[in-house]
Write a structure and sequence with these properties.
23% strand
Length: 75
C-alpha cells in the first residue's frame, strides 16, 4: 500500500543542527509541499543561527513546493 502524499509544516527557530537532521528524515518521504514556519531572532547573537536554519529548511534536497512563513522579529 503506497504512503499518501501529505504536506508537512516544519517549525524552526535557531537550531540549524536539528533542522538539518529533520530535513534528512523528511527527505526519505519527500513530501510534495513543505511549509516552513520560522520566528525571528530574539537578539543579534541568534540572528546567524536563525539564518542558517532557514537556509537548510528552505532548500530541501528533494523537489517540492516550499511555502515560507518567516518573521523578521521575534514574536
Amino acid at each position: 500500500m503506497p504512503v499518501p502524499e501529505v504536506p508537512i509544516a516544519l517549525m524552526i527557530f535557531n537550531r540549524p543542527d536539528l533542522t538539518e537532521k529533520i530535513i534528512e528524515q523528511l527527505a526519505k518521504r519527500a513530501p510534495p509541499i513543505l511549509y516552513v514556519i520560522a520566528d525571528g531572532p530574539r537578539n543579534k547573537e541568534e540572528k546567524s543561527l536563525c539564518e542558517q536554519a532557514r537556509e537548510i529548511a528552505l532548500n530541501p534536497p528533494w523537489a517540492c513546493e516550499v511555502v515560507p512563513f518567516l518573521r523578521n522579529e521575534n514574536k
